[in-house]
Design goal:
Strand 25 (518-526) and strand 26 form a beta hairpin. With 737 residues, this protein is α+β, with helices and mostly antiparallel strands. The strands form seven sheets. Strands 2-1-11-10-7-8 form a six-stranded antiparallel β-sheet, with no helix packed on it. It has a five-stranded mixed β-sheet with strand order 4-3-5-6-9, with no helix packed on it. The chain has a five-stranded antiparallel β-sheet with strand order 13-12-16-15-14, with helices on both faces. Helix 1 runs parallel beside helix 5 (243-285). It starts with a strand and ends in a 5-residue tail after the last helix.
Amino acid sequence: MPSSRVSIVEIATERVHTVGRRTRIGRGPDADIRLDDPMVSLAHADLIRNDDGTLTVIDLGSRHGTFAGRQRTTQALLRNGDELLIGPVALRVAVAAVADDADELRRLRAVVELARVIGVEHDVDTLLGRVITTLMQLVPADRAAVVVYDSRSRTPQWTVTRDRIPGRPPLAISTSVLSQLMADPRPFLRTELDTDALDRSQSLLAQDVRSLMVVPLLYQATTAEWLGVIHLDCQGDGPRFRDADLELVVAVASQAALAIKNALLVAQIQTVRDEQWHRLERVVHHLPVGVVVLDNQHRCVLANPWAMARPTLLGALAPGEVVTALVGLEPGRLTAADAPLTVTVDQRTLTMATAIAGDGSETVVVLADVTEQRAGEDRAAHQDRLMLLGQLAGGVAHDFNNLLSVILNYASFLEADLEQPTMKDDAKQILHAANRAAELTRQLLAFSRRDSATPTVVDVGKLIRGLERTLGRTLGEQVQLVTSIADGLPPVRIDPGQLEQVIMNLLVNARDAMPDGGLVSLRVMRAIKTPHLVLEVRDNGPGIAPEIARRVFEPYFTTKALGKGTGLGLAMVHGIVQQAGGDITVQSQPGRGALFRILLPSTTAELTAEPVTAVSVAVQGATVLVVDDDDGVRRLSERILKQAGYVVVSALSGPAALAFASEHPGVIDLLLSDMVMPGMSGRELAHALVEQRPGIKVLFMSGYDPGATAPRQKLIAKPFSRQALLDAVSEAMGLSA
């Protein structure tokens, strides 16, 4: 059976007196319990504590007597709660159980369990709640409060209170006690509040506080940091605190202070983390890429608006939810990727890069839609490939034109000289084949943008209206042509003959794509946002597969049957448009027809007047210096000019021509030179010769257009006919009539 603590309480003042084995009550100096009242004898009565927790009171012959209850007695047995009257002073017996070893062990275990629990608790409110609940179980307090103060302002930041009796006024901590504790941070214990000014605090008296403990919460580091207080009190006639209670609360306060400091530090870290996280959210909110953050359980921690707006491409994303797949890939594959991934979903190309936090707790996935970028790269690569092909085609066409010039003209000579019908017809067949070959080289040169073009300022609408009847006959009755030409179109600078070739090739290409007939629309309008003219050719045929659409402008690429096409039509269109400073694109899907769109830069220049056909006139005895590294072309030119009455001298290179001119005593009226020659180009030769002979005229020959010529210099394109050469020489010398 646990032992008991027996006390005598003065009912009027609530003073508590501990009763020993034998305790004397009286007014004299030898009394254990002194009652300062004249009606109390010096040795009034003895109290004997029995083993069962009861008291025996023995009157010592007092003058005014001893009363047990209402009965005067010389000896009586008293139990817990019984009242005793010593003279006029009313007393009450209070018996409280004293903890035995088992109870003490229970209290220690409660303290250890509290330390274990609060050591891992980082929420301050929850932590304080656990502390105050444990304290109310360990000590006989009527009320309790734990207060944590702000370190700067010293104002309460967290407050948790408990009251054994609900409905009573809220606990208010005495400011005088708090001030004393801040000045001297030692635990404060008052078993009975009646001895000094502090004990007579009005706030404590108003709350009927009879016993009080206030213990500071001190965090011991390099120096002691004051965090707050634990307040415990007893009211009215209830039990009173002992020194053992204070020791227990101090032990709890030490553990609680450490846990509170840890929780405050965690809260600070969490605040910083939250601020950094919000900053990250603000940064990624407007990024033109997707950002998704996954934790180590593959839950979505963050997804910016770009990612959230594309559930079809990326998959469902919701903060806090487990992500089973991202762009069709399992999260495990993303975290294991050591290089960016490229994924195609719904004809969109996405790149994905991942970065894993150092502790592996989070994975950041950055996604970018590179569909347009890749398409642009493909277009650039395609343009480079076309440019290389164009350079190759231009070089081949240049050499081929030299050969064709010789073939065409010598075949023409044969046809004129032969009288036997069969042989004359053979010469015509040679001319026909050579002319077809010349047309192929013109197409190659157009593709390579080296064709000899004569750009003028053209009214495209007027040009198309003039072609409509021809275009209708070309397309045939099974194909309906619809033209739409906007009003007020700006002019463009382009060779009108080449523009006609472009339109014709696109329409014929559309017709060939619809062998059973269909609808072709030709539309011309002004671009909305840029200074361009837009020309569109659309058909409702079977469309073009993507892998074919990427190659339609390559030379010799064709899907037509053998003998039905050369594969140079669209290549020529592409070259002409590029040479005019424009651009051409194709849009098509299988089963939905095709749309070819051309953008040509507009101009504010005046329209070019219609040219007047000139008649060439030769001057007998005019001297022409012919320079060409190709023997066939040079001899052909000499023959044609000599037959027309010119005096012809020749050289096979630029340096040879300069040497001849420096030694020639007579006048040289015209330089007829090839543009591309080894060692010295025709342009370099002309520059040197004009300085030597300022009055000389210049006519260049070339298998492709080398660009603009200088003033008083003309150009004739190879292959040329006899009459074309004579007309060009006459024009260059200013002899046209």
